[in-house]
Records
---
Amino acid sequence: MDDTSVSGNTALNDGGGIANAPGATLPLTKSLVTGNYTASDGGGITNGGPMTLAQGDVTTNIAVQNGGGIVNKWGAIHRLLEVDPWLATLINCPPSVLARCSPT
């Protein structure tokens, strides 16, 4: 996915913004995943396969359980290229700590 915005989505299960199926490949370039919510894992992205995020942001996503921004499942891995790790991890939080880690 190139030059894409995934924003304002809600999911009851994994992957509020994107759910990458086990074994699937997900390349994201210059893309924004923001403002998504899930009642489960992976507010922004639940990743089940090889994923690369290049020159993009994963921010302000909420997961009730695990991985506000990105959660890897089923042995999956992800690579961040030219991405601020702070934006890809800490700004994405469970609701209980969202106020402590939102950007000011």
---
Amino acid sequence: MKYVLDTNIITAYLKGDGIVKQRLQEAELKGGEILINGISYYEIKSGLLAINASNRLEKFEPFCRKFGLLLLDSQEIFDTAANIYANLKLQVSRARNIPHVRLI
């Protein structure tokens, strides 16, 4: 199974969240492929650099090397994500709004 980590999960890991660490270990033990979303990498790296969070940066770099990056390198990926979001939004009744969801 493949797992793609988003910004919230990576941030929780860097802050020492025990549940996140445990789930990542479980996924590894099951042979899962764990990747970091390329956009999340950018968001976290730029945020940590902006606040000069050297301790978390020291954890982040080996974390990225361990799991690797999933790079979104084509317009097709963004088009597919946009279509999925639009289709989901159309399926929701007008009485209920779908929350903003990041698909990429």
---
Amino acid sequence: MGCNLWFIHHNVIRGLKCRHRAGGLVSINHPFLYSVPTGTWLFDWEHQDSIEVWDGPWDPTDEQSLATWHSLLVEGKRFTGIGGNDAHKVPDVTALPTTVVLSKKLSEAAIIDGVRNHNVYIVRDTG
């Protein structure tokens, strides 16, 4: 069975494992933006490769993501911290922040490997 969207949305953990088997990278993006009212992530922290610690203009959900990432690192869990944003409407801005990836070449596979190997840093903007 392939890793189609229906499969991922109806059985998240199986979908994440499927992505890994296919060589994909799993990132938990803005984990606290749409969380339950208690502000907790709905799933475990065992099936992803990265966590988005900064999403768009800095706000309390970014603080929570950054603190969670730090706690996970202290526990010995190695996830790559990334930054990015969603631009769905005006005046949303793209590339605030941006994840810069060190890769061996300019290809999708090399960039994924760079993220997987924690060879990244986050900048506020590319200017």
